Amino acid sequence: MLKKRFFKTKDECEVAFELNLDDAERVELLCESNDWEPIVMKKSKGGAFRTRIRFPKEQRVQFRYLVDGNAWLNDDDADDYRYNEFGGRNCVIYTTADSRPPVITAD
What we know:
The chain is mainly beta. It is 0% helix and 50% strand. The strands form two sheets. Strands 3, 4, 7, 8, 9 and 10 form a six-stranded antiparallel β-sheet that branches. A four-stranded antiparallel β-sheet has the order 1-2-6-5, with no helix packed on it. A hairpin with a 7-residue loop joins strand 3 (27-31) and strand 4. It is globular.
């Protein structure tokens, strides 16, 4: 599950990531915005793994979940998907209010 929160006073979008896995011991979020360094998600008493990250607005961010160090999972709520160099697909989230790709203009 993904939830986006936009701020009136900041050009940021806070994204809440949540993955419900009862039998997992550890879930890490990896995303391109921090050079794919793992972010350990906290497990709630109900079994859901959660974390929140702030991204700049008008961005396209790729991410994936790594479960117990060996299984890659995607999020069904992602805005889009992109193929990666390993033959899999990465999730994509757009940090725009309407979940459409950001408009990129040439300088």
